[in-house]
Amino acid sequence: MTKYTFDLLKVAVLTLCATSYVLFPAMASTNEERYSLVKSGWWGSDYQKISNHCNWTAITCNEAGSVTDIAAHYWPFNLPPSSLKLQNLNLTAFSNLVTLYLPRMQLTGIIPPEIGTLSKLVTLDLSYNNLHGELPKSFASLTQLIVLDVSFNSLCGTIPSELGEFENLTFLSLASNRIEGPIPQQLGNLRDLQELHLSNNLINGTIPSSLGRLGNLTSLSLASNQIEGHIPQNLGNLKSLRKLSLSNNKLSGSIPLTLYQLGNLSYFYLDSNQIEGQIPPEIGSLEALEVLNLSCNSFFGPIPSQVGALIFLHELYIEFNQINSSIPSEFQNLVSLTTLYLSHNKISGVIPSELFKLPLSSLHLSTNQLVGHIPFEMRNSIRLCDVDLSNNKLEGFIPSPIVNCFLARVNLSNNKLSGSIPVQIGFVNILDISHNFLSGKVPSLLVSDNASWSQTDIGRILASLDLSYNHLSGSLPIELANLLHINLSFNFFKCSEGFKVFHKESLIGNTPNFPSCSSQVQKTNKAKHLIVIILPVTCILLIICLFILYFTLSTNKTKIEQRQAKNGDLLCIWNYDGRIAFQDIIEATNNFDFQYCIGTGAYGSVYRAQLPSGKVVALKKLHQSESQNISFNESFRNEVKMLTEIRHRNILKLHGFCLHNQCKFLVYEYMERGSLFHVLNNIKEVGELNWRKRVNIIKAMANALSYMHHDCIPPIVHRDVTSSNVLLNSQLDAVVSDFGLARFIDPDSSNQTFGVGTYGYVAPELAYSWTVTEKCDVYSFGVVALETLMGRHPRELISSLFDTSPQNMLLKDLLDSRIRLPHSQKDAQDIALVVTIALACLHSKPNSRPSMLQVSQQLSSSGQSPLPLSFFEISIHQLMAQEL
Ligand SMILES: *[C@@H]1O[C@H](CO)[C@@H](O)[C@H](O)[C@H]1NC(C)=O
Ligand SMILES: *[C@@H]1O[C@H](CO)[C@@H](O)[C@H](O)[C@H]1NC(C)=O
Ligand SMILES: *[C@@H]1O[C@H](CO)[C@@H](O)[C@H](O)[C@H]1NC(C)=O
Ligand SMILES: *[C@@H]1O[C@H](CO)[C@@H](O)[C@H](O)[C@H]1NC(C)=O
């Protein structure tokens, strides 16, 4: 009570101060605004420090001092939870408000009816909050809105049909709420609409055919509702559509043929409905398709050979249908395919060996009627990490090694495979080959012959092995008992001494031999009598042991403490002999146990290690093979020493290295969010990468490369700039990693190298020349910059740039469609500038590319010229024609 009057008093005083120098006609209204802001309590005590509320966090005013924007990404004030109630802000006061942008602010309460008084409101974003209740009736008067996003709240009620009168609306999202009732057909009047998101609600009824009038729509998602009926024919008119998501509804009928005319459709999700019919040959005209999910429907008949035309297809899911053809040989044309799920159909024929020429990482063909052998080529497919061929009629031998990917999971169970278990299984983590006709002994080392891994490493990689229901026999290698899960049941194993180490449950069904094992167990029972004699002796020994243990522990403890003090931070690792740091690392990672492994790359595996000091570092353990020769060690030492001396805020800090007979590793700063590639491809995280953050990441890369090229003597060329080598910390700030690594891995070739870089990022001149220059990095930078803004690799774009008759693509269509188009002028300018620069970096002639110094200067130049056109009209070709 008293606090409230005190606050009011302060407001009054401050208001007086404000009035004394702000003498505008609109004064009365700015005072009301100020009063409303203070009274909301949202700004904590900020207003005591800054008199003019226009300068407060999240507030923007017009020249007359009236609030136009309330926009924030996060709230810096330390307020008690749930005090950010939307009703507490009296919205009536803000007659000039244009932007109310408060996503992820933990707002609670309802959307107050006063919102209807904001007649100038253009952007309303209250997404990812905890708002409940219905959209108020007064909402109908917000007809100026261009962006309306209230997704990820707990709103209920129905979709107001008045939304159909919001003529300027380009973005509408009510996704992930509890909205019920039908989709009003009036939404078909929103001619400018580009994105409509209604997924994850309780919407029922049918898809109104009026939606077919939304000619500008690029993304339509109605997934996870209770929508029924047929897919309307005229959705085929949505020529701009890039993403169509109708998953998890009750849609029936067949896919209307008109839908196959959507030449821009890249993402098509129709899974978990009741769609039936054949997949028609017309599927081949969806040329832009990248992801197609038709799983869990009633498609029958063959997969048409025209599927082979979908050369951009990355992921194809047709699980749980009634497909009954063989896998068409045209699949070999799907040169982008990484994921193929065809399980639970009636697919017959053999597995075409050409499949393994594709960049597949996941292959699920389980529960079909496939026959023939597992093609030997499977073991050559280096990316294949997840294979499920279970429940078919496959016969013949298992390839050796089975796969070549690190930590793979493989299920070949329930087939007719015969022969013995391959001695080399590769880096398989989970292996199920149960229910087959495998015979012979279980090989003692289920390991790969890859020299870069020691046997103990491999032993740790295999974690689960199911060999049950085969015809295996002989004795058992006892190492297998260390696996997390092992099943040897229902085979013909002979009992031997080693059997005791296995859990009984993992050996059942090995009759008639198993009982003789239990008799051995009984022998040990006889030994019980001996215990009576041994027990007193043991007790005495035990006491002595405890004493010894106590003393060793206490001396050890001081040793560890000494070491901590001596080592301190790992920064100075070379000042000590490698052994000490090595011990810390071995302890922190439990001798490079794979549970600490956070990734693998071309040079080795990366581990997360928490040092005794509490500091977390990343360890890059290099593959073994190089460490054998002495000249390598020498150059390694020199090179790394130089790299550790580099200090730049956009370059991953290399704290030190460790050379040891057994292993060699680099110690790096730990980046919490992993690689840019990871975040861009993670549906949960990508939303956090807004345009500002993305532009900053690109600037950081440019600064890092510019520093290495122009401020280091001699210049250091990275050689492998990719989105996987750009790492992000918890704030999503970027650093470039692996600088110089390429060179010391291959020290003999100062400028020349074989097979440098990563496919998709290397400059075109490296195809005919082996000379690596800074300009190769510039090219790769251009690729990653575009990838950052597009959210995916710009493959098609780059090839289309050099077409003789290029299609005139618009800038806005290039941008990552998973986040909203930029709505601030600054973001729009930055994006246009980045794309202009990136395109210049992709010039096919190295000399025509800008230098990284020019790039970083351009990007940081403050006085940017305003855009010549509206952002939505700028085309890629205009940007290509721009002078830098
Ligand atoms: C909200 O502000 C308006 C005008 O500024 C005022 O008339 C109204 O009384 C205020 N409402 C509340 C609940 O404070
Ligand atoms: C494809 O559909 C299946 C079945 O509904 C679903 O489990 C899976 O997550 C979908 N995958 C993608 C990438 O949409
Ligand atoms: C596939 O199923 C259809 C009907 O469902 C049938 O007409 C056709 O003969 C079947 N094809 C094969 C190869 O079994
Ligand atoms: C091994 O498989 C058999 C038969 O399926 C099962 O009864 C047993 O519980 C399994 N053992 C383990 C350890 O999972």
UniProtKB/TrEMBL annotation:
Domain Protein kinase: 592-872
Gene3D superfamilies per UniProt: Phosphorylase Kinase, domain 1, Ribonuclease Inhibitor, Transferase(Phosphotransferase) domain 1
GO CC terms in record: membrane
Location(s), subcellular: Membrane; Secreted, Cell wall
Record PROSITE patterns: LRR, PROTEIN_KINASE_ATP, PROTEIN_KINASE_DOM, PROTEIN_KINASE_TYR
EC code(s) of this entry: 2.7.11.1
Top-level EC class: transferase
Keyword set includes Lyase: no
The keyword Glycoprotein is annotated on this UniProt entry: yes
Catalysed transformations (reactions): L-threonyl-[protein] + ATP = O-phospho-L-threonyl-[protein] + ADP + H(+); L-seryl-[protein] + ATP = O-phospho-L-seryl-[protein] + ADP + H(+)
SMART domains for the chain: LRR_SD22, LRR_TYP
Residue numbers binding ATP: K620
Protein name as annotated: non-specific serine/threonine protein kinase
Species for this entry: Arachis hypogaea
